[in-house]
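Morning run. Coffee first, then this:
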Amino acid sequence: MVQAKSWILAKHFDGFPKNSDFKLQVEELPEPKDGEVLLEAVFLSVDPYMRPFSKLYMKEGDVMIGGQVAKVIQSKNPAFPVGSHVVSDCGWRSHALSDGTGLIPVMSDWPKDVSLSLALGTIGMPGLTALYGIEEVLGLQKGETLLVNAAAGAVGTVVGQIAKIKGCKVVGSAGSDAKVAYLKELGFDEAFNYKTVGSLEEALKKASPGGYDCFFENVGGIFSSVAVQQMKNFGRIAVCGSISTYNDAVHQTGPYPLITINIKQLKIEGLMQSRWEHKHPEGLKKLMAWLKQEKLKYREHLTKGFENMPAAFMGMLQGENIGKAVIAA
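And here it is:
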C-alpha cells in the first residue's frame, strides 16, 4: 500500500485563486492489478490553461488537472517496466494507479544531461504548442516579422527562438525588465515591458514600424485590440491563450476590432497542440535536436515540494516565472 497525496479543487475560483480553493487529500492506493502500473510523480506542471479548464471541465472535489513526469515504481504492464519514466495527465497527484491509457513514454534516447523536467516544457506540450503554432497555423516564412506576447513564458520563449531559427524578425513583450533582458539573451530583435511603456501602440510601432506579418497571441484583452491594428494586410494570428482574462469575474468580450480584421483581411486561428498528436514524435525530435545544437535555450522556474503546488500555480498566474513553471515533487 502506498500513501498518495492529491490536491483537489475545494471551491471553484471566484476571480483570482485563493489558498482556500485547494485542499490536500491523502489516500491509500492498493497494489497494481494485471495491466496496471503505479506511478510516482517526479516533476509536475502548472500551466495557464488550468485556470479556464478548471471552470469548464471540473467540479468541486475533483483532483486538479495537469501533466507530470512520473516514474514507474510498480508494474504489471510489460509496456511500462519498473524504473521507466512517462508523461502522464494524472493531475496534481504524488502517486497514481494507471492501466496505461494516455501514458506517453519519455523518449527512449533522452539525453542523460537533460533534465526530465523539460518533458513538461521545452521538449513537451509548451514546446510543441510553439512549434505547431509557427509551422502549422502561421506558416511563418523567412524574413517575416513575428510578434509574441507573454514572450518570457513557457510557450513564448520557444516561439521566439524557433522564429529566429527560421530567419525571422521577432518582437516580444513581457511584464518585467528582468524578463525583457532574458528575451534579449534569447536573441529577440526587440523586446519591451508592456507594464512600463507609456503607450502600447507606440511601443509596437517603434519595435516594427512596418507592422507585423504574424502574431502569436497568449494574452488577449487590451493588448490584442492594440496589436491587431499593427498587423500587415493578410497577416496571420495564432491564438494560443488569453491569460489576461482568465481571472476576470466577468468575462471580457470582443477583444478584436472587427473592422480592422475585415479591412486587412487577417486570418485568426486558435490552436491546441493535441490537434497534431500524430506529429508529436517528429516534433519532439526536432525540438531536442535544436536544444542539443544550442539553438534552443531554456529557463525553468522550479518550486520544490508537492505541498507547494497551489502557491506555484498562483505565482505562475501572476507572472512570477521566467520560462516554464515546474514543481519538483
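Residues 125-138 form the longest helix (14 residues). Good start to the day.
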